Fold:
Amino acid sequence: MTSLPLIPVAPDAPAARRAAMPPRHLADFDLAGRQALVTELGEPAFRAKQISTHYFGRLVRDPAGMTDLPAATRDRLAGALLPTLLTPVRELACDDGATRKALWRLHDGSLVESVLMGYPDRVTVCISSQAGCGMACPFCATGQAGLTRNLSTAEIVDQAVYLAGVAASGAVAGSPPRLSHVVFMGMGEPLANYSRVIAAIRRLVAPAPEGLGLSQRHITLSTVGLVPAIRRLTSEDLSVTLALSLHAPDDELRDELVPVNQRWKVAEVLDAAWDYAAQTGRRVSIEYAMIKDVNDQPWRADLLGRLLAGKLTHVNLIPLNPTPGSRWDASPKPVEREFVRRLRAAGVSTTVRDTRGREIDGACGQLAAAEDNDTDAPQEAAA
Ligand code: SAH
Structure:
C-alpha cells in the first residue's frame, strides 16, 4: 500500500484552533495516494480518477456538480476529500476585468489573496504560499504583519484551480480561456513552506486527471533567497523558473531591504541561483524593485551588471508599488531608464515589469489581505 503523506488535521482543542492547518483534500495527494484513500473509504479505486477528472480536468470544485457519482458515494467522498478550503470574501477587478484579485477566508479565519491576470496570449495566476510572511522586507505590505501560518498543498493548488475556472468561464475578455502560467509571487515565502509548495508544483504540472497539466516552464517560484532551500530545489527533478528577489547588489543595502540577507549574503545566494540555472538550463529571473534614492543609483546598476554579466539570467525591474505607511517612492522614469541602459550595456537582459493590479492593491508587494482595505475606484467583480 502506498504510504500517505502526513497532513495535519485541525485539532479539537480550542486553543489550537487559531492558525490551524486545514482538513485534508484530494489535491494534497498524488493519484496513488487518492486511490489508497478512496479504497480505505470503502469505494472502488477508480472513483479517485473520477473525482480527479472533475476537479483538475473540468475545474469542478463543488461536489454537487459531480453528478455522475451515486449520491451516497458523492457524500462520502466529498466529506473526506473535498472540504471547502477557500471561501471567497471579495473579488476586485481592474484593467477592464483583465486583472482580478480574490480575497479568501481559510477554514481557520486566516485571509489570503490571489491575482488572475489575462494577457492576449496567456493567463497567469499569482498565488499565495503562506498566510502572511515572516521575511519582513520593509517595502512589502505582506511582510508587515508577520507570518500567520503555512498553507497546505491543497490550499495552494485550490487557488489556481478556482481561478482557472474563472478564466475558463470566459471572465477574462481578450485572453485565452485556459490558465497557462502560475507564479508563486503572492503572499508568503514559498521556500519557507518547502514540502507543501513542492507538492503543489507537482499537482500543477501533473497531466490531468492527476493534476492541472501546466508546463514546468510556465511556473515561476519567487524567493527572497533561502540558500539551503534553493540548493534542495536544485536537487529535485523539477525545472520550474526560479525568481530571486535581489533588490540590491551589495550586502550593506540588501541586509536592510531583504533582512534574510543577514544570514545568506548576495554572493552566496547568487551562487545558488547559478547552480540552479546550470542544473535546469533555465534562466534565473532577478527581481529588483526600483526605490527612489535607495537602490537606483547608476553605480548600483553597474555593480549589478558586473555580478550578472555572462550568467543565464534576466532582470525584471519592478517600479516600487505603494504600500501603506511606506517611506519610499518609486524611482523616477529617467532614473529607471538609465538603470536599464547600464544593465543592458553590461550585456544583461533587462525588462521593466508592468504594474498590473496597482489600483486594487493587487500588484507586487501590495497583498495584505485586509477585509476592509479601501481602494480608490475598484470595480467590484461579479462573482
Ligand atoms: N517571498 C517571495 C515571494 C513574493 S514575490 C519573494 O520575496 O520573492 C513578490 C515580489 O514583489 C518580490 O520580488 C518582492 O520583493 C516584490 N515586492 C514586494 N514589495 C514590493 C513593492 N512595494 N513594490 C514592488 N515590488 C515589491
Summary: The chain has three domains: 23-81, 84-132+143-205+366-383, 224-352. The radius of gyration is 21 Å. Residues 23-81 form a domain with the DNA polymerase; domain 1 fold (CATH 1.10.150).
